[in-house]
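Continuing the batch. This is chain 6 of the set; chains 1 through 5 are on the previous pages. Same settings as before, nothing changed between runs. Recording input and output for traceability.
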Amino acid sequence: MAKQATKHHSEPTVQEALSKSEEFLSKYKNQIFYLLGGVVLLFGIVFAYKKLYQEPKKEEAMGQLFLAEQAFRNNDFAMALNGDGNLLGFSQIIDEYGSHAGQAVPLYKGICHLQLGEFEEAIKSLSKYKSKDFIMQARAFCCMGDAYVGLNDLKKALDLYLKAARHHDNLMAAVYLKKAAIIYEETGAPQQAIALYEEIKDKYPQTMEAYEADKYIARLQFAQ
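Output for chain 6:
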């Protein structure tokens, strides 16, 4: 009997809930219709933006980037950076296409500035380069170090060379460590320089920098 009473008691509650739901839908059906229509419209706008603007813009940017990269590979850094009136350079590609041009453009642009002796512009561009590619990110740090050497700011250059060397363990780290060791030599810190040359020998014995390390160590020890 108790179970039956419970069952009879629950049925009106369910019916009441259904009735209220129907009443709610009837009362607000126009608002709900407009809301759903707005969501569909929003998805349509996003889809159209990607297909009709974003993707074509990216393809157009890639076409321009290919030509600028060719000039870069040919060591024509002025043309790669600024174009020639027909070809867009990396500077114009960034201005014209922004993020559609791809994340590598600030690196290309920074290296062009560096090669042209425009060190402050190089630093400004290279500092915008962010990549999950450890090797290329370390290369960007090293190039920034080279730019600071050009500005005769050896302390910042040293910090960036060490940052590049420690960013990821690969053979290029030997190059960055050697650059840092040279800065230590130039700033009168021979022991720190020797320590880096020893590190190159221990960690990267197959590199050219390791083959030459003993020569540099002997020179520094002789000078003391």
